[in-house]
């Protein structure tokens, strides 16, 4: 079940505190590679599950106008500042110019895990909410860029599943 009452930024802070401890334990017992791969796998699975849960709130396969509505949850409490480029049922493009998620991970001393804990969720979430949505991004604030370029497209080719 997805909790819409708790802002996502707050949820990510709570998750990050727990995942940092898990990372530290795995780091000491299995090394950096296994620790990072395990956190990545867990966050990916969580994002897909959250996308699937979000999809159940629609009476149709969510399109990118629906994702635009969901974006309100991602930006709640000024978590993201963005410049909208385009939005339609089949295309959604925007640039994030400020990311409080990145700021939060830096403040927590775990900026090095921010991309795994947050940025990688975006594409995985799309897999869960509607596998026909593709996500592309070439840069992130988390990695030091001035902005994150979010580009979503909806493949309308039906494979018999919607």
TrEMBL record:
InterPro entries: ATC_hydrolase-like (IPR026002)
Pfam families: ATC_hydrolase (PF14196)
An MF annotation (GO) of this entry: hydrolase activity
Domain of life: Bacteria
Keywords of this entry: Hydrolase
Protein name: 2-amino-thiazoline-4-carboxylic acid hydrolase
Lineage, opening ranks: Bacteria, Pseudomonadati, Pseudomonadota, Alphaproteobacteria, Acetobacterales
């Amino acid at each position: 079940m997805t909790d819409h009452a708790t802002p996502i930024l707050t949820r990510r802070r709570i998750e990050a505190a727990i995942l940092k401890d898990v990372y530290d334990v795995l780091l000491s017992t299995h090394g950096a590679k296994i620790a990072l791969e395990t956190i990545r796998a867990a966050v990916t699975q969580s994002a897909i599950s959250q996308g699937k849960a979000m999809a159940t709130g629609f009476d149709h396969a969510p399109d990118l106008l629906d994702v635009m509505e969901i974006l309100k949850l991602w930006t709640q409490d000024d978590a993201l500042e963005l410049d909208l480029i385009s939005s339609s049922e089949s295309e959604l493009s925007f640039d994030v110019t400020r990311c409080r998620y990145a700021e939060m991970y830096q403040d927590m001393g775990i900026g090095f895990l921010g991309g795994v804990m947050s940025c990688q969720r975006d594409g995985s979430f799309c897999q869960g909410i509607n596998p026909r949505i593709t996500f592309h991004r070439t840069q992130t604030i988390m990695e030091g860029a001035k902005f994150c370029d979010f580009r979503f497209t909806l493949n309308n080719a039906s494979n018999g599943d919607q």
